[in-house]
Amino acid sequence: EVQLVESGGALVQTGGSLRLSCKASGFDFDDYVIGWFRQAPGKEREGISYSMRSDGDTIGIDSLKGRFTISSDYAKNTVYLQMVGLKPEDTAVYYCAARHHALEDGLGSLLEAWYYEHWGRGTQVTVSS
Predict the structure, then answer these.
(1) Three-state SS for 114?
(2) Cα torsion for 124, 117, 83, 5, to the nearest 10°?
(3) Which of 4, 18, 23, 104 could bridge 120 with an S-S bond, Cβ 3.0-4.6 Å?
């Protein structure tokens, strides 16, 4: 059974930092893509990044590059989202998601929520002004 468990969310002040973790189990990391998403109140779920062992880690939103960094520890089956310089607009529930990735899938859909089959329950990040 595929399971994804996010952790690390918290209430922080503007300018603060957090590291979110996504612990995965039940599948082979070599064959899956792991995505990070966030959903703010009243807004659609937004794709932030994706990680694949074959392709590395990619931040998909240009405005977040420089503040958000992703990394993967395959020995621990864990993907991390390091966030610095947090702003109130980063307030959201942060989710990780997974799907078996085939070469023919390409890369164009990896930031789209509809692409993913498995989701964690999310972790709340709140940034106070």
Answers:
(1) helix
(2) 60
(3) 4
Q: Which of 92, 62, 98, 61 is nearest to 78 (CA)?
A: 98
Task: Report helix, strand or coil for 100.
Answer: strand
Neighbouring CB atoms inside 10 A of 104's CB total 5
* Distance from C-alpha of 100 to C-alpha of 20, rounded to nearest angstrom: 22
In terms of C-beta distances under 8 Å and separation of at least 24 residues, what long-range contacts does 64-72 make, across chains too? 70/36, 72/29, 72/34
Query: 79 pLDDT band (50/70/90 cuts)?
Result: very high
Using CA atoms, how far residue 5 sits from 44, 55, 57, 80, 83, in Å, is: 21, 23, 19, 12, 18
What tens digit of pLDDT does each residue of 30-61 get? Answer: 889 999 999 999 999 999 999 988 777 888 88
Residue 92 has pLDDT above 80, yes or no: yes
Q: What is the per-residue burial (b if ≥16 Cβ within 10 Å, else e) of 25-60?
A: eebebeebbbbbbbeeeeeebbbbbbbbbeeebbbb
